[in-house]
């Protein structure tokens, strides 16, 4: 009789417990670990506020998180006349929670924002959910460093043979849209299929840093090469300077080769840009060398045409030797005749020297004219190319 009375007292005491903890224990004891079942075999999960945040962007991958979901489980409801509370806290692992998937993710991790969920008296359950996913979105880098693209993120719940979970999204909020060199311009929620929702993420590369480290140095080298035409054509200083520019730019390209993106569906336009800049520098160097030779030698080809001047020089030398021989074997002339002959030789030498100087001056003027012509062609071509290269990557592709 004593034991029966103790058990009865404890039962009465437990039935009279109406605190939040007692309510929580009652709901936990139901062991509701399976999805709520109804006639339609589906459970609607509402996501009233979807917070999207781009955590990190690689050239082909994007990491993000999203949170907040709620659903109804009628078996978790209670009578507010017995338990005078509108909400109670339950451990998240003691009840059923929906499973969300990012179907186009390479890897994804799902975790709850807290170890507890909030349950209302009508059976509504609220949970904070965070999904970290790595999505292969194949960002188009053709316009790099002015890259812009839209990356779709497919979000759905578990569903098979018309049974499972359906998602109903509310508002999409974009938070903290700037990370590293990439900026999330916008995130738009679209429903392209009945069983799948898409978050269209608009990504844009911050062009300031790549432009200053990649584009601007190439522009400055081309500008310096154009200004180098102010150096004298003769003397070799200009040619040495241009060779230094070519070697420096080649080293610059080799250093950046491993840093440039190149594994997307389109090769970045900045790669052919560097090649074109190198072609500009090499052509400028070669033309400068050829005009320098033309100014000094009067001809460009030195393997065949250079022999044409040899007979003329030999002929002049033989003529001078004949005149000297004739002067040696001639009869002794008066002193006046000797002075006259010396004066003729001096006059002839001066005429020959003057003619050579005039020929060199003519060659130099011709080479200078060609050099100035190429300068203006190079200046207009280089300026036009740099203007086009600055605006083409900004155009949509």
Write the layout of secondary structure elements.
Blueprint: H1 2-15, H2 20-29, E1 42-57, E2 61-65, E3 69-72, E4 87-91, E5 100-102, E6 105-112, E7 116-120, E8 124-127, E9 129-136, E10 148-157, E11 159-160, E12 163-174, E13 178-179, E14 182-193, E15 196-205, H3 208-227, H4 237-256, H5 270-297, H6 309-329, H7 335-391
Parallel strand pairs: 1-12
Antiparallel strand pairs: 1-2, 1-3, 2-9, 3-8, 4-7, 5-10, 6-9, 7-8, 10-15, 11-12, 13-14, 14-15
Helix pairs in contact: 3-4, 3-5, 3-7, 4-5, 5-7
Distance between the termini: 89 Å
Number of helices: 7
Main beta sheet strand tally, sense and closure: 10 strands, mixed
Helix/strand/pairing class, anyone? alpha+beta
Overall mean pLDDT? 78
- Portion of residues in beta strands equals 25-35%
Per the principal axes of the C-alpha atoms, what is the gross shape?
Answer: rod-shaped
Radius of gyration: 44 Å
The count of β-strands is 15
- Ranges where pLDDT stays below 50 over 5 or more residues in a row are 5-14, 304-315, 324-334
SSE pattern = HHEEEEEEEEEEEEEEEHHHHH
Which bin fits the share of residues in helices? 40-55%
What do you see in this structure?
- With 397 residues, this protein is α+β, with helices and mostly antiparallel strands.
- The chain is built from 7 helices and 15 strands.
- It has helices at residues 2-15, 20-29, 208-227, 237-256, 270-297, 309-329, 335-391, and strands at residues 42-57, 61-65, 69-72, 87-91, 100-102, 105-112, 116-120, 124-127, 129-136, 148-157, 159-160, 163-174, 178-179, 182-193, 196-205.
- The strands form 2 sheets. Strands 1, 2, 3, 4, 6, 7, 8, 9, 11 and 12 form a 10-stranded mixed β-sheet that branches. The chain has a 5-stranded antiparallel β-sheet with strand order 5-10-15-14-13, with no helix packed on it.
- Helix 3 (208-227) runs parallel beside helix 5 (270-297) and helix 3 (208-227) packs antiparallel against helix 7.
- The chain is rod-shaped.
- The termini are far apart.
